[in-house]
Specification:
Helix content is 47%, strand content 6%. β3 and β4 form a beta hairpin. α7 packs antiparallel against α8 and α9 packs antiparallel against α10. The longest helix is centred in the middle third of the chain and has 19 residues. The model has no long low-confidence stretch (mean pLDDT 79).
């Protein structure tokens, strides 16, 4: 029920929606205010053949431009009440004969989609990873290699190309058992393969410490003021010649910012949140320490606070 203006009652009254007829009726005078209206909500009616099947799906899956004919195929379903002899029947033999030849490709795309969902990646990255994998598969040279590492490497490259990079450790955590070393080798293999196919170098995008910072800060539960200070510090650190991995720099900046706040974070927690070893964070902190006054915003910490920071 809801409220609407009734022309007979000359005021706003409660109305009742008749779903079967599509009519909106005034609850006081019975006037039909709107007839044959279209219900735009989801229609969760079951159209399954079997009475015990509660699947509300009434259409096929979406088309995929990376598959032949959009990935649409015909499936001969098993009739109700049939036994296992169906596969040996003529219909069953036709079903086996007409099985989708791209089944392995579809399974690979499903695995990439699952890994992307576990990392919270957007659809454009998932689609780019599927596109890269199809190019690799067309070369027919990846047989005998670790398939999980190949799929994970495709996702890693797609993240880099879409300017949403993830660390190798993050990719490794959803790679179904593939190690960092295997993913690294698979990445090098795919890049070389694509360079040969395209006849030019593969653009991977440049990694900056700021690409990882907000996600790391979120993992640590840092407040907005500390996150803002860390972002400014990372931007200023780009102008300083520090020959360190951007991920290590991001971890070191987070360590500095948290030590200057009331919510100090242990080095161990920062290491777990960023995936950077504690010794690596200490070395990056040692490199940043002489330039702390240049990178830490003045509004966040005073000179005295910076001097009181522990020496590396």
């Amino acid at each position: 029920m809801g409220d609407a203006f009734c022309t007979d009652c000359k005021r706003s009254t409660e109305v009742v929606f008749d779903h079967s007829a599509g009519d909106t009726v005034c609850s006081e005078c019975g006037l039909v205010l709107e007839s044959h209206s279209i219900d735009e909500t989801s229609e969760w009616r079951t159209f399954a053949n079997e009475s015990n099947d509660n699947d509300p799906v009434r259409v096929g899956g979406p088309t995929n431009p990376l598959l032949t004919e959009g990935g649409l195929s015909t499936v001969i379903s098993k009739p109700n009440g049939t036994t296992a002899d169906f596969l040996s029947s003529s219909l069953g033999r036709w079903q086996n004969r007409g099985s989708n030849p791209e089944r392995s490709l579809i399974l690979a795309f499903m695995t990439i989609a699952t890994m992307a969902d576990r990392l919270g990646l957007v659809a454009t990255i998932k689609d780019r990873a599927c596109e890269i994998y199809k190019k690799v598969e067309e070369q027919k040279s990846s047989r005998g290699r670790n398939q999980d590492a190949i799929l994970a490497a495709c996702l890693y490259i797609a993240c880099r190309q879409e300017d949403k990079p993830r660390t190798v450790k993050e990719i490794c955590s959803i790679a179904n058992g593939a190690t960092k070393k295997e993913i690294g080798r698979a990445k090098e293999y795919i890049v070389k393969l694509l360079e040969v196919e395209m006849g030019q170098s593969v653009e991977m995008g440049t990694i900056h410490a700021g690409d990882f910072l907000r996600r790391f800060c979120s993992n640590l539960g840092m407040n907005n003021q500390a996150v803002k200070a860390a972002q400014e510090a990372v931007q200023k650190s780009d102008g300083i010649d520090i020959r360190r991995n951007p991920i290590s720099i991001a971890a070191a900046v987070i360590y500095i910012v948290t030590q200057l706040s009331d919510e100090k974070k242990p080095l161990r927690d920062i290491s777990l949140a960023t995936g950077v070893a504690e010794g690596t964070i200490r070395n990056a902190y040692k490199d940043l320490h002489p330039n702390i006054s240049k990178i830490i915003p003045a509004w966040y910490a005073k000179e005295e606070d910076l001097r009181n920071l522990c020496s590396p």
